[in-house]
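Our example copied in:
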Amino acid sequence: MPRIRRLARSDWRLLRDVRLEMIADTPMAYIESLAAARRQTDTQWQERASAMAEDSSITLVADGGEDGSRISALMRVVVKHPQDLGKPKQVMLSSVYVAPEHRGLGLADQLLLESCAVAETELGAGIIELGVHEDNARALRFYQRHGFCTTGASRPYPQDNSRSELVMERRLS
């Protein structure tokens, strides 16, 4: 089983490779197109890795346990409104991906549990939220098994405004 660790700024090449794989594998799951991702320069990938490793964002990856190992899964937790100190802190779960050869092995479960723990203990979040495409029954069931509930809210799906993402959330503490 791959180990789970944090994405580091120095992992920008690994991030680039897994991001291109993510978008090619499930293009409708991400806002970014494969063509746009391929146009990114090395400097832009370095900046993305830095942003994904900053104080209001923690990105967990699963890899083979050695430096430079291929990333087989990724999950990102982002503070929704870091400047709004008067409200309970909420985070968003995004960039969820498990490579096809690692699906069905419990890696998504492990990443989600770790992401929730990090969101609560390190980011101080009380609620974790995500959007799931209205037609993705498998994802809805997965998150429901992990304590997420639909909120009744939805938002337009970024790649097709005629479709919706259902908002789901889980209380952490």
